[in-house]
């Protein structure tokens, strides 16, 4: 019998240099992976922080509103105590405001003075007196909002004066005029030296005073400054330049048909200021005159201007006036839309998930249904909006711009999310629960309804809330079914015209009014607050009700 000798290898030396190098490389790889993970988290937090800082910095000013204190005598001859809603509140506000400025008597100045207050300020007074009819016949102190330009001015959002010239115009002046030494000063007037051809086709030698001298100067300026630098180079010259050239031609008719070199033409006001090294400015076009600033400053000095919290942003509906625009209609519309979405998608989604997971036979048909449900969860929301537009509005003729249609469209989008979340929650219930219930004689239906479904409900609710939060932020489906309409009053039912928070944000962002810029960011903050609350509720329910197996 032959002896078999075992192949014994020498024991591995874990303290060798090679082993230590491998350990160091392994630890280094672990540290790199951790660093990459922390870096990714840091970048995500940085981007999130940048987003929040950007939105908050531009939106926080919308949560306060500039008001002016008024002392108003509620004259019973102007406001009927029996019917206070029909009073002439515009007159009361106007007269009490004009009382602060008795020196303003000119009608044009009074029109400019009225622009300090909001055009709808009398509605604030009306609402107060209708709610408190006992003040009729008394002198009351009320605060009414200012117009949007003065609200933005008081918040230092817009300046009183703006730059008169664009940077392209300033750069063209520096390049083609100042750097060439063409600017001169004579008798305190800033002039530009240009070569002018006295075109005989535009000047009649018999009557040189009737020539088209502005056109001649325009050609001379175009020869000096290319059109791609300044659209109208003639704007550099004042109106007096044509008159001066006319006087020259009348005094020197023999020069007609020749080039007048180094003709000194006066610069316009803004370019003359630029030549002096000053920054040319003009009155902000949002204001009528500089007198308005003096009147507004007088109100500030007397302590009549306040900056309280802007409750109108929450309690008012939409308005064409930024200072009166609010989110009440959008908030109520979003709530009704989500209610319809929940009432449709939750029972249908849970029922479909229970059937597919617990009762449906496993065959190609159910496999096809499951694949399509997963695909529907990835379909862009605009597709559901087109479906709702064609089906609910086009085929069924349902009312446009209503929470009913909006909720039905969003329920189509939310259904796949709820079905997938419900099936995952049902799978998470241990099989022993089913087996124990069946062992004591429960039917299949009783096992699901009395044991499995209640235990899966925390996961189902979490998925439902997350699906609703996603639906709350959708814009495209609501725009397609008309929920971006201008709605001034909150809806009272699901068939009333309404808008929603995302559609309201879209509408305000598209508005040219400067006041809606901050209100758009404020509306985004309100929407984010709702989303954070809904996700916090989902996390709370999951941690509070979820059972560990």
From TrEMBL:
<feature type="transmembrane region" description="Helical">
    <location>
        <begin position="522"/>
        <end position="541"/>
    </location>
</feature>
<dbReference type="InterPro" id="IPR024573">
    <property type="entry name" value="DUF3333"/>
</dbReference>
<feature type="domain" description="ABC transmembrane type-1">
    <location>
        <begin position="331"/>
        <end position="538"/>
    </location>
</feature>
<comment type="similarity">
    <text>Belongs to the binding-protein-dependent transport system permease family. CysTW subfamily.</text>
</comment>
<dbReference type="InterPro" id="IPR005672">
    <property type="entry name" value="Phosphate_PstA"/>
</dbReference>
<dbReference type="GO" id="GO:0005886">
    <property type="term" value="C:plasma membrane"/>
</dbReference>
<feature type="transmembrane region" description="Helical">
    <location>
        <begin position="447"/>
        <end position="472"/>
    </location>
</feature>
<protein>
    <recommendedName>
        <fullName>Phosphate transport system permease protein PstA</fullName>
    </recommendedName>
</protein>
<dbReference type="GO" id="GO:0035435">
    <property type="term" value="P:phosphate ion transmembrane transport"/>
</dbReference>
<keyword id="KW-1133">Transmembrane helix</keyword>
<keyword id="KW-0472">Membrane</keyword>
<feature type="transmembrane region" description="Helical">
    <location>
        <begin position="35"/>
        <end position="56"/>
    </location>
</feature>
<feature type="transmembrane region" description="Helical">
    <location>
        <begin position="404"/>
        <end position="426"/>
    </location>
</feature>
<dbReference type="InterPro" id="IPR000515">
    <property type="entry name" value="MetI-like"/>
</dbReference>
<dbReference type="Pfam" id="PF00528">
    <property type="entry name" value="BPD_transp_1"/>
</dbReference>
<keyword id="KW-0812">Transmembrane</keyword>
<keyword id="KW-0813">Transport</keyword>
<feature type="transmembrane region" description="Helical">
    <location>
        <begin position="376"/>
        <end position="398"/>
    </location>
</feature>
<dbReference type="GO" id="GO:0005315">
    <property type="term" value="F:phosphate transmembrane transporter activity"/>
</dbReference>
<dbReference type="InterPro" id="IPR035906">
    <property type="entry name" value="MetI-like_sf"/>
</dbReference>
<feature type="transmembrane region" description="Helical">
    <location>
        <begin position="327"/>
        <end position="356"/>
    </location>
</feature>
<dbReference type="Pfam" id="PF11812">
    <property type="entry name" value="DUF3333"/>
</dbReference>
<keyword id="KW-1003">Cell membrane</keyword>
């Amino acid at each position: 019998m032959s002896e078999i000798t075992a192949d014994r290898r020498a024991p591995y030396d874990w303290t060798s240099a090679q082993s230590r190098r491998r350990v160091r490389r392994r630890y280094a790889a672990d540290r790199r992976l951790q660093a990459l993970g922390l870096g990714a988290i840091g970048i995500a937090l940085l981007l999130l922080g940048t987003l929040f800082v950007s939105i908050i910095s531009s939106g926080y000013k919308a949560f306060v509103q500039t008001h002016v204190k008024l002392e108003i005598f509620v004259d019973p001859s102007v406001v009927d105590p029996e019917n206070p809603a029909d009073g002439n509140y515009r007159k009361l506000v106007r007269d009490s405001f004009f009382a602060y400025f008795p020196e303003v008597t000119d009608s044009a100045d009074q029109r400019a003075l009225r622009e300090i207050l909001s055009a709808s300020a009398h509605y604030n007074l009306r609402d107060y007196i209708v709610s408190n009819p006992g003040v009729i016949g008394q002198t009351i102190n009320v605060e009414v909002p200012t117009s949007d330009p003065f609200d933005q001015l008081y918040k230092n959002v817009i300046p009183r004066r703006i730059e008169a010239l664009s940077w392209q115009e300033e750069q063209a002046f520096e390049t083609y005029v100042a750097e060439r030494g063409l600017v001169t000063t004579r008798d305190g007037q800033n002039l530009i030296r240009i070569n002018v051809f006295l075109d005989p086709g535009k000047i009649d030698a018999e009557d040189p005073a009737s020539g088209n001298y502005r056109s001649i100067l325009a050609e001379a300026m175009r020869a000096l400054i290319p059109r791609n630098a300044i659209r109208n180079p003639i704007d550099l010259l004042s109106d007096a330049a044509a008159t001066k050239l006319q006087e020259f031609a009348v005094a020197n008719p023999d020069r007609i048909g020749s080039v007048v070199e180094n003709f000194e033409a006066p610069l316009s006001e803004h370019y003359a200021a630029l030549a002096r090294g000053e920054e040319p400015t003009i009155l902000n076009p949002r204001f009528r005159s500089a007198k308005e600033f003096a009147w507004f400053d007088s109100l500030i000095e007397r302590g009549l201007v306040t900056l309280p919290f802007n409750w109108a942003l929450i309690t008012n509906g939409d308005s064409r006036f930024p200072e009166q625009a609010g989110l009440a209609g959008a908030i109520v519309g979003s709530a009704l839309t989500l209610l319809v979405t929940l009432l449709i998608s939750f029972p249908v989604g849970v029922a479909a998930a229970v059937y597919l997971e617990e009762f449906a036979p496993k065959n190609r048909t159910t496999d096809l249904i499951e694949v399509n449900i997963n695909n529907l969860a990835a379909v862009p929301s605009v597709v559901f909006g087109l479906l709702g537009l064609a089906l609910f509005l086009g085929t069924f003729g349902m009312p446009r711009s209503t929470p009913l249609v909006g909720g039905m469209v969003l329920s189509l989008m939310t259904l796949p999310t709820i079905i997938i979340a419900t099936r995952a929650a049902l799978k998470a219930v241990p099989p022993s629960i089913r087996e124990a219930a069946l062992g004591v004689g429960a039917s299949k239906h009783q096992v699901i309804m009395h044991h499995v479904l209640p235990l899966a409900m925390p996961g189902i609710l979490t998925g439902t809330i997350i699906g609703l939060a996603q639906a709350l932020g959708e814009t495209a489906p609501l725009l397609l079914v008309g929920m971006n309409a201008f709605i001034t009053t909150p809806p009272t039912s699901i068939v009333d015209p309404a808008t929603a928070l995302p559609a309201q944000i879209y509408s305000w962002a598209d508005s040219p009014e400067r006041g809606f810029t901050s209100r758009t960011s404020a509306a985004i903050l309100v929407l984010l607050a709702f989303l954070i609350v809904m996700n916090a509720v989902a996390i709370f329910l999951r941690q509070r009700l979820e059972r560990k197996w």
